[in-house]
Amino acid sequence: MELKVVKFGGSSLADANQFKKVKEIITADESRRYVVPSAPGKRFSDDTKVTDMLYQCYECASRGENIDSLFDKIRERYNTIIKELELDFSLEEDFDVIKSAFRHKSGRDYAASRGEYLNGKVLAKYLGYDFIDAANVIFFKMDGSFDSEKTNEVLSKVLENHTHAVIPGFYGSMPNDTIKTFSRGGSDITGSIVARAAHVTLYENWTDVSGFKMADPRIIKDPKTIEYITYRELRELSYMGATVLHEDAVFPVRMMGIPINIKNTNAPLDKGTMIVSEAPEEANCSVITGIAGKKNFSVVRIEKDMMNQELGFGRRVLEVFEKNGISFEHLPSGIDTMSVVVAQNTIEDKKEQLLHDLFKSVTPDHITIEDGYALIAVVGRGMVSTKGTASKIFSSLSDSGVNIKMIDQGSSELNIIIGVKNEDFEKAMNSIYMAF
Fold first, then answer.
1. Is residue 296 a contact partner of residue 306, using CB atoms and an 8 Å limit?
2. What is the rounded average pLDDT for all residues in the chain?
3. Of the candidates 295, 298, 296, the residue with the CA atom closest to the CA atom of residue 370
4. What is the pLDDT of residues 262-275, one digit of tens each?
5. Which of 92, 162, 181, 264 has the fewest CB atoms within 10 Å around its CB?
6. 288 pLDDT band (50/70/90 cuts)?
7. pLDDT, tens digit, for every residue of 146-195?
């Protein structure tokens, strides 16, 4: 029997009209039995997401300021939806509890989670589905990491007793019963967790775009939609800034081989993008699947003669970064050079200490730190079987007058990472996209 989990993003549930679209989508397919909602998003470009309103309100409460007017705006968002849906339903008791908790400094995670919690209750009432509080079925360990096995065991048993249910996204609970959230966009992860626990055949992730684009439409005009993308390709693109799906959402479903379908709430008949373990043979596979990138990286370049013969050199370098609380992104290297690519904001206040520690630990001949790099990932399962892919990329950049500052390719040949200066980022993205 076909069974689906459907997750709806904030733009899909921003107002009563969007709720009506969501209900039509869910009731059109009887296999859509478990629903994961986000908090209401923006209704228009200058609007404020409910999650941001909650953060702002909580910050005021934590400073001892009056929050009545801010909280009333949050109350109004939900009451307007309830009224326009003509529901015989009230959240007033919940509002009172939340407002009191804010004043007693319940924590930022608790505050942020209430957007999904309240939206979940409204949606459950509107659909006539059971409401399952995520705090009772999504668990974190004391160190803040997600407890996947406990969650899967408990959630699977709970779902067996609910034919149809709404489970709010984004949050769960700690062992001490306090609320813990995933990072922003974490409702995608909740949907994936529920899909695994329910043993579904498909996880539908509904948003405001008709699938995953080959490149960022803010940079590339009208990029093509990707028909099929593998989990590995998606992971690479998401990590490098593609934002349709949270980068960690693939893990719970990947282990079960459950495909994800990215769909558009405002255009439900569009096919969208299928995210799968292995793309089917009949899938239209171009050389590259997608391009993504981010600005503002720094490159720490270490030079030392004969470093390749110095046992433990790389380990000692990375220990220095670890000691200074800096994570690395990439490690391109040569025989006598080693470069460590890091997010620029992670070393801005630590450069002097970092240089001191590196000179002390590995006694290099020379070290430079260069800021203002952008990284571009060219990702595609077709690259491994196609000759001249790298040449095509580099030629397109050369023809556009873009100077390549760094190249890094993994052994899987799934992607090529190119470093350019920040000011060349948009030009480089367009050049590579047009080349393919």
1. no
2. 92
3. 298
4. 999 999 999 999 99
5. 92
6. confident
7. 999 999 999 999 999 999 999 999 999 999 999 999 988 889 999 999 99
Please answer whether residues 7 and 186 qualify as being in contact, where contact means their C-beta atoms are separated by less than 8 angstroms.
Answer: no
Q: Which two tokens stand for residue 126?
A: 């509107």
Q: What is the pLDDT of residue 90?
A: 97
Say if CB 360 and CB 281 are below 8 A apart.
no
Question: How far apart are the C-alpha atoms of 273 and 253, rounded to whole Å?
Answer: 16
Contact between residue 344 and residue 315 where contact means Cβ atoms under 8 Å apart: no
322 Cβ contact partners less than 8 Å away, ≥ 6 residues apart? none
3-state helix, strand and coil shares in percent for the chain, rounded to the nearest 5: 40, 20, 35
Cα 315 versus chain centre, distance: 30
Which residue from 204, 234, 173 is spatially nearest to 9, judged by alpha carbons? 204
**Backbone phi and psi for residue 75, each to the nearest 5 degrees, phi listed first:** -55, -40
Question: What does the pLDDT average to over 47-68?
Answer: 96
Q: Which DSSP helix (H) or strand (E) runs through 291?
A: strand 290-303
**Alpha-carbon separation of residue 374 from 170, 295, 429 (angstroms):** 30, 4, 11
Q: Rounded CA gap, 125 and 304, in Å?
A: 66
